[in-house]
What we know:
Elements lengths: L1 H6 L8 H13 L6 H11 L12 H11 L10 H24 L35 E3 L8 E3 H12 L3 E4 L6 H13 L8 H24 L13 H13 L6 E6 L4 H7 L5 H8 L18 E5 L6 E5 L9 H15 L8 E8 H6 L1 H9 L11 E6 L9 H4 L16 E5 L3 H18 L3 E6 L17 H9 L3 H11 L5 H16 L38 H11 L10 H14 L7 H14 L3 E6 L14 E2 L6 H4 E2 L12 E5 L4 H13 L4 E6 L10 H8 L2 H5 L6 E5 L14 H6 L7 E3 L4 H13 L6 E5 L14 H4 L6 E2 L12 E5 L3 H12 L5 E6 L1 E3 L3 H9 L6 E9 L5 H9 L7 E7 L10 H16 L4
Parallel strand pairs: 4-6, 4-7, 7-8, 8-10, 9-10, 11-14, 11-15, 15-16, 16-18, 17-18, 20-21, 20-23, 23-24
Antiparallel strand pairs: 1-2, 3-9, 5-6, 12-13, 17-22, 19-21
Helix pairs in contact: 2-4, 4-5, 5-6, 8-9, 8-18, 8-19, 9-16, 12-24, 20-21, 20-22, 22-28, 24-25, 30-33
Amino acid sequence: MMQAMYSHSYLFGGNAPFIEELYEQYLADPNAVPVEWRDYFDKLAQAPGAAERDVPHQPIQESFVQLAKKPLTGQRVSTVAEWESMQKQVGVLKLVSAYRVLGSRQANLDPLKRMDQATMAELDPAFHGLSDADMAVQFNVGSLVGPQKLPLSDILARLKQTYCGNIGLEYMHITSSDEKHWIQQRFEGDLSTPRYDAEKKKRILKQITAAETLERYLHTKYVGQKRFSLEGGESTIAALDHLIQNATSHGVEELIIGMAHRGRLNVLVNTLGKQPRDLFAEFEGKPTMELASGDVKYHMGFSSDIPTPHGPMHVSLAFNPSHLEIVNPVVEGSVRARQQRRKDAERKTVIPVLLHGDSAFAGLGVNQGTFNLSQTRGYGTGGTIHIVINNQVGFTTSDTRDMRSTLYCTDVAKMVEAPIFHVNGDDPEAVCYVMQAALEYRMQFKKDVVIDLVCYRKLGHNEGDDPFLTQPMMYKKIAKHAGVRAMYAERLVGEGILKAEEADSLIRAYRDALDKGEHVEQTVLTNYRREHALDWSQYMGTHWAHPTETCLPQADIQRLTEKFTSVPEGFKLHPTVEKVMNARRAMAAGEQNADWGMAETLAYASLVTNGFGVRISGEDSGRGTFSHRHAVVHDQNRERWDQGAYVPLRNLSENQGDFLVIDSILNEEAVLAYEYGYACSAPDQLVIWEAQFGDFANGAQVAIDQFISSGETKWGRLCGLTSILPHGYDGQGPEHSSARLERWLQLCAEHNMQIVMPSEAAQMFHVLRRQVLRPYRKPLVIFLSKRLLRYKDAMSPIEMFTSGSFRPVIGDSGSTDPKKVKRVVLCAGQVYYDLFNARKERALEEDIAIVRVEQLYPFPTEQVAAELARFPNAKEVMWVQEEPRNQGAWYQIRHRLEGLLNAKQTLLFAGRPSSASPAVGYMSKHVAQLKAFLEEAMSVSK
């Protein structure tokens, strides 16, 4: 049968597509192809190198395509010779594939020449059945960019230069053929070799000279002070300059940069143009702006407008805490908001740039979360340019064998099929070259791309460390290393680009400028007004009690309700959703009280029709975790989500604001940080992050501690982010009861946040509208009761929406004679209804008053005092909470309550006993605890 195949020339005719299809079938299931073909493919699979991973079928497919192009001649060579020739050709194509897949393993990436390089047999021609005797033989190159036929020696040389020089490429993990071909055309076309003119080379030298000189100047001027030097990775500055100067030609107008400590001061001065004198003032403890607490110099952000050949580029460096990569999703959120403000659906005018450390990139889970967000509909920013400053040490003293379980620190990026360009940091031209490729790839494919800049760290982690303690051999090599500036200057002198004294003069000029606290030349635009700049002045100096009208006329409520309860003709609602929609119409008409879902929806609808954007994200936000919102409804007769989903709040009026509700990825840390970044750049929108259960915010504690609670006091960053945290003790156990109110309140100071626990539906309506309509931009945290979402007594008559506003304190209306009240019970949240019912059962309305403190911070001192004054004969004031004594609000507001008592009053407490766990897991114990503290709260003498 095999002889029959050869004699009929199936392999050498126009049947390549047919054979390729057969081979694909064979790879999926060998039994799916005829036996003669299975035997043939089995023999190919046994050939040397056929087991090469990742693309086992690619070389064979390419061989068929190329062989099919061979013209038939009148004479037929022997089948044996034919077979051997074909095997050699296939071997060449497999060699090409091997370099594409594995060439980076043999690339010259390590400036210190310490990187272990295992011998890759697949990169040896002999592995593919090719010998020295074949080096002069002409072979078809397949899809290798260049001439169609070349001697094997030339093919091998091109492969080595492209894949094993100072640049190593990883892209064969990408499934898109278009993307792989683009990268091949780009790098194979010019053999991964930059070709810059003299002016460009001089600019590169100038950039790395500035980088090195600044570090050495600081090292001698401010001895022993932390600065997290960039020395060893100076090519980073050249790369960023190249990006800024070239991105505007692609329509980019803003770059938002996120980075941790390493090299940050250098980027501030040499990339963004911060005045050296201002940096020096920070070293000397003289802040350039007065903030409540301020922050260390290597956490500070900055922004500037930089001239480029294609117009100004606005560059912002985000503020960042010591928690390294947590800034990354913050940057992504900020970029998305800026793109939204520009109505940039193509996501090309504003792009994020993230600088990472090698250990942090691989080790911190927030990067996985951020990558996971990158291609989702609600969070995508059109691709991020990642630069890993890979100093091969990691965080402080790590050995790469202890830092990760992968070969490269960048392997995590493969989860989103991002191409990875490894580059030797000692070759600044190659660094700029891959930066250009990264820029063009990002703009072409709207995807993330990673540059792994392999370098070293000249000094210890923070200049005070002695690296010889843990890395003696590495630092012996570093001590002998000339440095990238000296090596590149020598190279340019050798090329005749400049003279040695010219290179030295660059250093002197830069040092002279630093002595004056200035730049060598003006690198930023002054007095430049950007079209899309935000004016934050209207939010400065405002107070939380700023009077704001948040009610709505009845006619507006009915008109909006008619809109958001309507669906397109033929749209089949789920019976439960249809019931909800009908109930909302009745609520708008005043026929029944409004529940929380209605209150929320009314707030959103009224805001978007007035031009304010609303953005809600969380793990079940479209429907609502507790099936109360139904902002997205689904056609019960359509399978596809994109065809069967309808969002009524997007269809209210022609010129309405944007409404976006997102079912987010299952990662609280990255998502909450993202939404913080978004809210910081969108003060005119209601931006909400909703936890599925309130305690799930634990997974985002870094974002809460480092940004939400302290961003303003450290960096002067205002943010109006709203967080909705389900909270309430209903016997669901430790993990679904508490949103950790005590932790949030512990973080409250200097009017940095707003903490509310509303107990009525109308309160939710007013507080959401207040958050946008009032010129006050502080984070709002809503502790939301799950039980009250459908609790009849917590529903509100429509009159509470057409009049009034959010009430920080709700007084007692049960007592007919306030002078008879003996005890005033203060509480917050759903426990009010337990207290109310307990008082009613015991007929204690004349003895006990119940006051709801709906806003726990900023504490409404005047309003609480006014309520207490209504009961002049009450000798006891009791705080009652359903949380354990050591949790909840008690210890955080006790001092505030004590300050309001008169000399004859005593402050008491009732709640669950102190506990290591947020709540008990046994329903019987939960009920017993509830009964006990209610009894204590009601135990007033007659």
